[in-house]
Amino acid sequence: MKSIQDADVKNKKVFVRCDFDIPLVARGPVAGFLPESSRSRNTDMRAVGSPAAPVKQASSFTSFVRSTSATPRNFEIVDDTRLISSISTIEYLMEEGANVIIAGHLGRPSTEFKIQNSKFKINESEFSLRPIAKWYDEQFSAYSKKSKLNDFPGWEINTNLFLLENLRFFEGEENPSSSSGQEFVKKLSSLADIYVNEAFGASHRNHASIVGVASLLPHFAGFHLLKEIKILSRILENPKRPLTVIIGGAKIETKLPMVKKMHSFADYILVGGEIAEQTKILMDEEHRKIRGQKADLIVAKLTTDK
């Protein structure tokens, strides 16, 4: 797998797909962006996490960063670890002379939220990526403004950094093989010259901004994706034992294949999150006959007690 360091990004447009799937907390409605006087890194409205160092301005190239942005307008970012994980790639591209376009999705908007047939203002939707724009403002000492890049609404963070609005507002994003999806892939691809994947946690998705754009543009891996693959490969190829795997999440249909795979590979599997409520399915897996290695499957007991 080629790294972004193998790519000549100078005077090129680069599409970087990031992972913004982060936890949120409700703090009440957010009326708008913080005034400049309130935009310090110590304000109680900023996302949790260490601020990244400012990056120097770059020259005329454009990078597209695709991200899984789970940050509703009336929510605040609780843990910005995943946002910070892609900063080094964004900084590198900008320092090498690229303009960066960041793109991602937030939640699962229904068909009524689609931009093509919207019944309300997109920036008033709870699925807007507006909080992500605010987060980048703080990281890059910027003050973003609502704008458009070709036909795509979003925010200009600074002259070298642009955040696209929630890609799931476009019906072609989740159906890249459909006629609308193929057209959407072409429109996304037209924004950039190079594709960079920096979203390990979303790379399994058959979405236009992941598989579609990568099929039309030269593609490379971001720093964080390479790190994730290196660590996972080491565990799968030569694990230190006893090996304990922790699996959580909300959707049992997407996590069960991992539970099944790890059941015949790990020594212990700890299951938590909402999928731990699916006790019957997990118990069936626990008693499934497996040749050779078989893990002890331990399911968390969920409680509302604090």
Strand residue content = 15-25%
CATH homologous superfamily of the largest domain, by name?
Phosphoglycerate kinase, N-terminal domain
Query: What is the CA–CA distance across the termini?
Result: 45 Å
Percentage of residues assigned to helices: 25-40%
Most strands sheet: 8 strands, mixed
Structural domain tally: 2
CATH topology of the largest domain: Rossmann fold
Mean pLDDT: 77
Report the C-alpha radius of gyration, rounded: 20 Å
CATH hierarchy, class of the largest domain: Alpha Beta
What best-fitting shape do the alpha-carbon axes yield?
A: globular
Structural category: alpha/beta
CATH architecture of the largest domain: 3-Layer(aba) Sandwich
- Largest sheet, spatial ordering of strands: 6-7-8-5-3-1-9-10
- Low-pLDDT stretches are 30-59
Total number of helices: 8
Query: Looking at the chains present, what oligomeric state does this protein adopt?
Result: single chain
Number of strands: 13
User: What is the H/E string?
Assistant: EEEEHHEHEEEHEHEHEHEHE
Pfam families: PGK
Family: Belongs to the phosphoglycerate kinase family.
EC number: 2.7.2.3
Organism: Candidatus Woesebacteria bacterium GW2011_GWB1_38_5b
